[in-house]
Write a structure and sequence with these properties.
With about 250 residues, the protein is an alpha/beta fold. Strand 5 and strand 6 form a beta hairpin. It is built from 9 helices and 9 strands. The strands form 2 sheets. Strands 2-7-1-8-9 form a 5-stranded parallel sheet, sandwiched between helices. It is globular, with a radius of gyration of 18 Å. It has a domain at about 5-35 and about 95-225: P-loop containing nucleotide triphosphate hydrolases (Rossmann fold, 3-Layer(aba) Sandwich), CATH 3.40.50. The model is unreliable at about 240-245 (pLDDT under 50). The protein binds adenosine-5'-diphosphate (ADP) and guanosine-5'-monophosphate. Adenosine-5'-diphosphate binds near residues 135 and 173.
């Protein structure tokens, strides 16, 4: 059986890591590619588990040696996927999941157009800010400059949503996890003829509803909230604390 390559991208703080870790608890046979990065470990992160942490010099050496399937500079740090991850998953016939940014996803899609790509959006800018802030607090402190940087990048990243086959709006966690699981099972069914053990027609329906081509109505309020569907063409993002009613 040929493994499927899944790409998942999202603005930082949308809940992508949470979704991926929940998916891995529910579905077997999906390997997760541990990326290389030059950023410092955060919170309880461990070298080799969330990332392979390295220096800029070492990253550049690996890049120049052609060791990366894709790489990008995100928030001032390098991030890259080692070719070895893909080779290993292929050898084992496993599916492989890449958690990478929109620049990296574009590189992978170009090299491997058969990849299944999934974009995760937060429901509103306000929810995104709250999640980023809560995560920073849980990890030992809020860095306002870093927080602002990640928030300002979010709408630019969301603008790329049309390049992805599936779109998830991560509002209620359990529902989004079920949607992600349905996408994986549906792709296995369509590509490899793998049977779906439980309520297969429902699973296929859930996955189909997440296809980008079927998502316009569902996405409209999210895109408007991020200033992407504003008829005036103006970006009207507002992440200010004062504007909140919570
Ligand atoms: P990312 O990997 O996209 O940067 P994380 O998975 O670290 O984001 O999630 C950011 C924060 O939001 C975490 O504190 C996480 O527990 C929380 N979170 C994720 N998904 C949800 C959700 N659906 N509802 C509420 N909180 C969530
Ligand atoms: P974080 O620092 O929050 O873990 O990740 C920041 C961003 O880098 C996220 O959008 C994440 O998807 C992206 N990222 C993580 N690993 C890779 C990678 O190997 N390649 C690319 N291009 N982006 C990555």
């Amino acid at each position: 059986m040929a493994g499927i390559l899944f790409i998942i991208s999202a603005p930082s703080g949308s809940g992508k890591s949470t979704l991926v870790s929940e998916l891995r608890k529910q579905v077997s046979g999906v390997d997760f590619s541990v990326s290389w990065t030059t950023r410092a470990p955060r919170g309880s992160e461990e070298n080799g588990r969330e990332y392979h942490f390295t220096t800029r010099e070492e990253f550049e050496r690996m890049r120049d040696a052609g060791m990366f399937l894709e790489y990008a500079e995100v928030f001032g740090n390098y991030y890259g996927t080692a070719r070895q991850s893909l080779d290993e998953a292929r050898r084992m016939g496993h599916d492989l999941l890449l958690d990478i940014d929109v620049q990296g996803a574009a590189q992978v899609r170009k090299a491997l157009p058969e990849a299944v790509s999934i974009f995760v959006m937060p429901p509103t800018p306000k929810v995104l800010r709250t999640r980023l802030r809560n995560r920073s607090r849980a990890e030992g402190g809020v860095n306002e400059a870093e927080l602002y940087r990640r928030l300002s990048e979010a709408s630019k990243e969301i603008e790329n949503y049309r390049d992805y086959g599936y779109i998830l709006v991560n509002d209620i966690l359990d529902r989004t996890v079920a949607q992600l699981e349905a996408i994986v099972l549906a792709e296995r069914f369509y590509r490899n003829g793998e049977p779906i053990a439980f309520r297969s027609s429902r699973v296929l329906e859930v996955a189909a509803a997440c296809r980008q081509s079927n998502s316009q109505e569902r996405l409209k309020p999210v895109l408007e909230a991020f200033g992407i569907l504003n008829p005036s063409g103006q970006q009207q993002l507002n992440f200010d604390e004062e504007s909140d009613d919570d």
